[in-house]
Amino acid sequence: MIDFDNKGFFKLKQNAAYAEKVAPLLLDGEEILDSYKSIRDGVVFTSKRIIAVNVQGITGSKKDFTSLPYKNIVAYSVETSGTFDLDSELEIYFSSVGRVRFEFSGTTRILDISHYISRYLL
Question: Where's the Bacterial Pleckstrin homology domain (predicted)?
């Protein structure tokens, strides 16, 4: 499983092409909503879950996929970017995993992400 406390893993920028990495994992009727990428790792938001991808090894051929279903979320927090601090953050508390934190850089649409979660959670 991915070490979600490692801040370096989760400086994410929006990247639509990154969704291709999780396409084989999708269920019938599951849709990709948005995808974000750091240097090699990334996160994909689908209509049913969040899939975190940790690319491992020198060649990057080994990948760890962590599936975080929306149905297991008990609470979440969103911090928007400001004038001088352009990063935004998403903290999610899962019933079985605990706290998961994602950091986004640049002009991430963090409120859209909050809307995805709320739509499938509430």
Answer: 14-120
**What single DSSP character describes residue 2?**
-
Where does 7-121 sit in CATH, by number? 2.30.29.50
Q: pLDDT tens for residues 32-85?
A: 999 999 888 999 999 999 999 988 888 888 999 999 999 999 999 999 877 666
Q: Across-strand partners of 66? A: 52
Distances (CA, A) of 8 to 40, 78, 116: 11, 19, 24
Q: Which helix (H) or strand (E) holds 120?
A: helix 110-121
End-to-end alpha carbon distance in the chain: 27
User: What residue segments make up the domains of the chain, in order of their start?
Assistant: 7-121
* Res. 101: pLDDT tops 70: yes
